[in-house]
Write a structure and sequence with these properties.
Blueprint: H1 3-17, E1 18-19, E2 24-26, E3 43-44, H2 46-57, H3 61-74, H4 111-126, H5 132-148, H6 159-175, H7 179-199, H8 210-223, H9 228-248, E4 249-250, E5 255-256, H10 275-281, H11 286-289, H12 307-317, E6 329-335, E7 338-344, E8 348-354, E9 368-372, E10 375-381, E11 385-394, E12 397-404, E13 411-417, E14 425-426, E15 429-434, E16 439-445, E17 448-455, E18 461-467
Antiparallel strand pairs: 1-2, 2-3, 4-5, 6-7, 7-8, 8-9, 9-10, 10-13, 11-12, 12-18, 13-17, 14-15, 15-18, 16-17
Helix pairs in contact: 1-12, 2-3, 2-4, 3-5, 4-5, 4-6, 5-6, 6-7, 6-8, 7-9, 8-9, 8-10, 8-12
């Protein structure tokens, strides 16, 4: 199979969700599994922008034009406010209040980068078939995306919006013949590459979702460079990402080996992760890395809209995704005191990280992962835990120490399993604790079964995850 198969399925899903009355797409049920989103009558914004690009790729100019005009009307135009230039997550989301607005709750700042790059791609690839006034309005929208982004909002370790924003700023600089913007975009890109060269990888290391975003970003750098510097810089980052993704993908298990700095799940066949379409583009059977066949209720299905970007950028990116078939193998990445170790055996993939005490997106950090042919489990710090320090201690075993937070009176660990665990075991995958937890609460939720382990005392806890 190829990306063309994914695009065909995306077209079918879009036809189910497209609302001609507003020229936008309804929020798919898989965006919030277990919630009747249809009852709210919401329309999704970023995905509608990607849908407009796909319509243009398919020659559906009239429908794309209607969607683009609807999107332009939704952009937040509030100079001086921190949400200036971004877009709502849904068309029905109210504008942020004048007082007490909260980032991520009342506005998503990264929609400047995600939607801004989509609009720039529309102009680059299809501006010749669009009304000239509409093209001018699209470029003006990108100007607001760039102007509205606070200078210090995206820290250098926040890889995915940083790489996207570097390209978007430089694209606008080249488009508007503004050397200062082009230079600013190049400076951001150079700083990102210097950081990659210093650490050996991107800060958002090993993320089944955000690796996919990073590939889109550097794909833009290489395929559509605003200046010659971008092509060379993008090639540097792409080589690092491609080599590591290829090393961590287990072809027989169909998983990206952990540990994960950020993830929404552990099984690529349980939810849509943005790395999935890229792996399909690299030749992996779709059912190995996506919950195939997809439908509007598939968990995280909204991320499959990125397939149109994968299709556009694949010629520049896929040659770098060389998947390593040799087993066993080991990959170690260090960020100063942080050590991430990945071990891939014939029927097992082990991920263990030590030294990290995450504060941003803490709930997505999974420093302990074990995938096996009979099941998988991941462990993450819960309430009262500052972090988990883990290491691989055998061909199919991980030892982890749960470090209590300062002042904590109890400690919890969140574990995610591929099936309902019995005595903290699924198939041959087992988890043992010293001391035994005070309580274990098990519940089913997307994308697996959660077991929260709690200890009533704030003492270090030792976990052992292994295949027996």
């Amino acid at each position: 199979m190829s990306v063309a198969v994914l695009l065909d399925r995306l077209r079918e899903i879009r036809e189910e969700l497209y609302d001609p009355e507003v020229a936008l797409e309804r929020v798919p049920p898989g965006t919030v599994p277990g919630v009747d989103v249809a009852a709210f009558g919401l329309h999704i914004v970023r995905e509608s922008a990607y849908g407009a690009l796909l319509d243009l790729e398919d020659g559906r100019v009239e429908r794309a034009t209607a969607t683009l005009r609807a999107l332009l009307a939704l952009q937040l135009d509030a100079p001086g406010r921190p949400w200036h230039g971004t877009f709502p997550v849904t068309a029905e989301q109210p504008a942020p209040p004048d007082e007490g607005a909260v980032e991520w709750l009342h506005w998503d700042p990264n929609w400047r980068q995600f939607i801004g790059t989509a609009l720039a791609l529309v102009v680059d690839r299809h501006g010749d078939v669009l009304d000239l006034r509409l093209v001018d309005e699209l470029v003006a929208a990108v100007r607001r995306c760039v102007a509205g982004e606070p200078e210090d909002r995206i820290p250098p370790w926040y890889t995915n919006p940083d790489l996207l924003h570097a390209w978007l700023v430089a694209w606008l600089g080249a488009r508007d013949d503004r050397p200062e913007l082009l230079a600013a975009g190049e400076a951001r890109a150079r700083a990102a590459v210097e950081r990659v060269e210093r650490h050996g990888d991107v800060d958002e290391y090993s993320s089944p979702t955000y690796d996919g975003v990073d590939l889109v970003a550097v794909g833009l750098w290489v395929a559509l460079p605003p200046s010659p510097a971008f092509a060379a810089l993008g090639a540097t980052v792409l080589e690092v990402l491609g080599r590591r993704i290829g090393a961590l993908f287990h072809p027989d298990l169909g998983v990206m080996c952990g540990p994960y700095i950020r993830t929404y799940g552990l099984g690529l066949d349980r939810y849509v992760a943005l790395i999935g379409p890229w792996l399909v583009a690299a030749g992996v059977p779709v059912e190995r890395v996506l919950p195939w066949p997809l439908d509007p209720a598939t968990d995280h299905v909204h991320d499959i809209w990125s397939t149109v970007l994968v299709d556009v950028l694949a010629p520049a990116v896929v040659p770098a995704l060389v998947l390593d078939g040799e087993l066993p193998r080991r990959h170690v990445q260090r960020f100063g005191p942080v050590v991430a170790e990945s071990v891939l055996g014939v029927d097992v993939a082990l991920g263990a990280e030590s030294g990290r005490r995450p504060e941003f997106a803490r709930e997505q950090h999974v420093p302990v992962t074990l995938h096996h042919a009979t099941g998988w489990v991941g462990a993450a710090a819960g309430d009262g835990a500052a972090g988990i320090d883990a290491e691989v201690v055998g061909p199919a075993a991980i030892r982890a120490v749960v470090v209590p937070a300062e002042g904590a009176t109890s400690v919890a660990v969140r574990t995610l399993w591929s099936a309902e665990p019995t005595d903290l075991a699924v198939g041959a995958v087992t988890l043992t604790c010293e001391p035994e937890p005070t309580s274990v609460e098990v519940r089913q939720d997307h994308p697996g079964w959660w077991a929260t382990l709690t200890w009533s005392a704030a003492d270090p806890v030792v976990l052992r995850v292994e295949v027996r």
